[in-house]
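With this grant's support, we have paired protein sequences with backbone structure tokens. One protein thus recorded is set out beneath this paragraph:

_____
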Amino acid sequence: MRVVIAEDDPLLREGLALLLRAESLDVVATAGTPDEFLEAVATHAPDVAIVDVRMPPTHTDEGIVAAVKARRSQPDLAVLVLSAYVEQAFATDLLAGGSARLGYLLKERVGRVQEFLEALHRVADGGTAIDPEVVAQLFARTLPDTRLNRLSPRERDVLGLMAEGLGNTAIAERLVVTEGAVHKHIRNIFTKLDLTPTDRTDRRVAAVLRYLDEADRRA
């Protein structure tokens, strides 16, 4: 797996590079600015880019903007975004363009090495990985007059794990239930969120976007 790292903090940048190389991953370039990152992507055509949300010069959304540009030039590029805080608008913007090969993690997750590596591999393999804390905070910000209020506590648990990017088998293992039970809960979630089988979008992604959008508008 070929990786480019875009992070303006030199200690974190080099720490990530050392960690990934220790796991036999090929870190082909590191960058401290958005322009350096885009140049590295164009030069090395990596499989995955790890990108900080806030980068120079304004330290607002330069990382997200650069990641979007990189994916436009290389649609197959997997992107794992790192942020120090839960910034729901950025999470929503990322997923709005499609969830394949995208991740959004808090930087503190990097210290939990196994979880971080699992998320990185999941994104590289074409999946989605959203930090559990992001999911929890977005749920907490959602007011009770939304369609999410129709969900049972267990269905909310399942939707939260779906938002993290887990498949049915992993959800069943996490909740210690059968895959059949998970499938039933997901079917109920689709029904209660008015997502029909005839929808042309991926209903799993649509369900996650539904609560992200509700939370974003009501925060």
Remarks:
- Residues 203-218 form the longest helix (16 residues).
